[in-house]
Amino acid sequence: MSDSIIGAGPKRIDGQRKVTGEAPYAADHHPDNMAYGYGVFSTIASGTITGLDLEAARQSPGVIDIFHHNHFPELHRTPSSMAQGNKVEETRLPFEDNRVHYEGQFVALVVADTFDNARAAARKVGVSYQRDDAIANLDQGVKAHGTKPGSGNHERGDAEGNFDGAAHSIDVTYTTPVETHNPMEMHASVASWEGDRLSIFESSQGVVQQRGALSKIFGIPPSHIRVESPFIGSGFGSKLWMWPHAVAASVAARETGRPVQLVVPRPQMFTTTGHRPETRQRMRLATDDNGRLVSLRHESINTTSFTDQYVETCGSVTQSLYSCPNLTVSHETTRVNRGTPTSMRAPGAAPGLFALESAIDEMALAAGVDPLEFRLNNYADRDESQDLDFSSNHIREATEKAAEKFGWHDRNPEVGSMRDGHEIVGYGMAACNWEAIKRECEARVSLRADGTAYVTCATQDIGTGTYTIIAQTVSDITGLGLEKITVRLGDTSYPNGPISGGSWTTATTLPAVAAATREAIKELKGYATSEKGDFADVDNDSDSLVFENGQLTHDGQGVNYVDVLKGQKLASADGHAHTQGADDRYSYRSFGAHFVEVRWDPGISNLRVSRVVSAIDVGRVINSLTARNQVEGAIVMGLGMAHFEATDYDARNGRPVNNNYAEYVVPVHADQPPEVDVILLDYPDLEFNEFGARGIGEIGITGMAAAVANAVYHATGKRIRDLPIFKEKLMENIPAVQSA
Ligand code: MOS
């Protein structure tokens, strides 16, 4: 591997297409004769549809058909298995029956000749309901029907027995609200049929899984379905799995005999395409006299829907980040009248580390130890939950480097003691952590006689830079410039690739692309050493026959690969590879630490994050530009989680009340801290894959909200245990320290 291109920071190779509007997104596709669907959505959260008044809608201009539970073909549910490649999060099909499980559920679909006509007609559909009492939130769910055990639990030692009587202990509960992903590009499907073959453009993080799910639902072979998602306007997890609109669009296209486009309106992106669920997490920690953890319990409950059980594995990090012989992690769910939750950037770990890393701060204070020292004293040196060594773990170095750069050692630990004019300055820190995952993957690479390379894989680039790092990989091995390498992704007609999620795309796809490139070179060598070849006398697997910088070289004699192909009138040398997932020799994880400075002005109740220093150990960095971009983006998303983001539901009826960009607040440029300093440690994890890359998309958000909450405590003396940290929460019962 040369040093040049792997680890460099070339700009996104798809960047120009994106900024010039040339890159097609799902709803940019307009096949001939396309019709438009527009949904009618439930206005109650729980109950039964008792009647549909369709007359006015039917007479509305341009209407072609109206689908609903009495006018929808019989389909099959998908078994929803990721291993089988047909997972969805909401297994109930649209229009399956007249039950309403959440507000904003599809109750009808109008198809018309134009978007405007479809929308106008949809608004004329009358729906009558028999309304049941809605379970509107986690508390109501637990009260009404308790909880159900979830997955991902862990137990070692005797956490309960070592809690009472410990030198120091805390017993605290944290809560996090529903968050909605809010990618800029709305969910959209453009479906067309030709006979019994379905073709669908989708804004998707997982075309192969969607093909598998549609295959099960329609009872047709996967080979008859093509799902395409070459570009998406992000997803953050909401587009990992297919949602009901894609089934509705596919049915509408089949039944009307026309391609149908269906875009999910923004308000329903808060209801029918997943969300991060609400959590309640009880943390019980205890230490000995020396501030060493002796007992740790993390018990989490999250909301799920009435149709499916989604488990937010809040304790996934807790079981391995700190050394503790007595530890329990448990997950439970409770059903509420909301759509089915789904993964949102760092599922489990994002809300889980808000609780864990806030609790560690509280525990350190209770034990009288500096929070930085406390962590350094308690970090695990091996994964005690799996009894495995970490493949590579530089969390101590990350923590110390970031602390140094941040200036943690200048912190006066006394609450409210650090002042700058009107402002009280607070310093907080938290660890961050994410599992490194690598899955099975296929890829194809062609070295073509026109001097270019062509790569295909049915994974996606969700805006993270996947196109670019795949091109870098081929460039690294072949010596071809990035401009000579065409990468095609997001199409099920390409070799099977992974979902773009879990931060596993890089570690999964690069080994497959590299192997396919080597296969193509091998084929080229076969041509070169054949009877008619330039190296007819050389053995085709001879070590002295080398491919370098676009040349096949033997004994000082070099031939450009283009000439090898042209000499035999061949179009290309092709390689296909199928690589496997990670082994279980080690615990593969990424590590890091965030340091946050907040400024609180009690006079005008202004709170802002003024500085962030984060050091992250994600293995080898493939592209320094896009990697930094991922971490910075995740940090800002973490600030959104800390300060702003919460989908509110009316406790009386389960209605989402801020289901729009005006009232669901995400960070904007003005909220960006003046200083965000990201240190990437760049230690290759060669146990994990040949590139040593572990993936980088999610770890940056983990721990951020806790680092902010810990800084807010240091500034204000207020321990905010329920996100988000609205300023109003700091204004209640302002303690004496702030009125100085
Ligand atoms: Mo990520 S939540 O796996 O897109």
TrEMBL record:
Belongs to the xanthine dehydrogenase family. The keyword ATP-binding does not apply. The keyword Lipid biosynthesis does not apply. Residues 20-133 form the Aldehyde oxidase/xanthine dehydrogenase a/b hammerhead domain. Keywords: Molybdenum, Oxidoreductase. Gene3D superfamilies: Aldehyde oxidase/xanthine dehydrogenase, a/b hammerhead, Aldehyde oxidase/xanthine dehydrogenase, molybdopterin binding domain. GO terms for molecular function: iron ion binding; oxidoreductase activity. InterPro entries: Ald_Oxase/Xan_DH_a/b, Ald_Oxase/Xan_DH_a/b_sf, Ald_Oxase/xanthine_DH-like, AldOxase/xan_DH_MoCoBD1, AldOxase/xan_DH_MoCoBD2, AldOxase/xan_DH_Mopterin-bd_sf. It comes from the Bacteria. It comes from Kushneria indalinina DSM 14324. This is Xanthine dehydrogenase molybdenum binding subunit apoprotein.
